[in-house]
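Dear colleague,

Thank you for sharing your sequence with our group. We've completed the structure prediction you requested, and as agreed, I am returning the results in plain text so they can be pasted directly into your records. Please verify that the sequence below matches your submission; if there's any discrepancy, let me know and we will rerun it promptly.
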Amino acid sequence: MKQQNFGRIINTLSRHAESAQVGANAYSAAKAGLWALERSAAHEVERYDILINGLIPGHTQSAMTRNAKNFEDLQKPEAVYPTARMLATLPADGPRGKVFWNLAEYPLFDPVNPTYWRSAV
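Please find the predicted structure tokens below.
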């Protein structure tokens, strides 16, 4: 990507990164670590037209959720496509090291505007 001075990297994150849910320790830690890696890597390549951002797909029908009691109520995988497409086609001056959910920036670990993690602890 550096050689061609272009690239778009989209990491799949989760709100579990900021939650404290019993039984999800490793998953939560992995997603939080990926978010930290994303931000660091985004700064490392900021002189290039390489944008690294995260996508929170939300509760989606997948192999990971197939045993959920409400599986049929979860969103279909294609519902994530608009946000993924937006991130894949960002212009050179687009966001770097940010997280998006449903086409909008998501304030992961935002101490000013706490959302999920405060209520989960």
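Summary note from our side: Confidence is low (pLDDT under 50) at residues 116-121.

Kind regards,
the structure core
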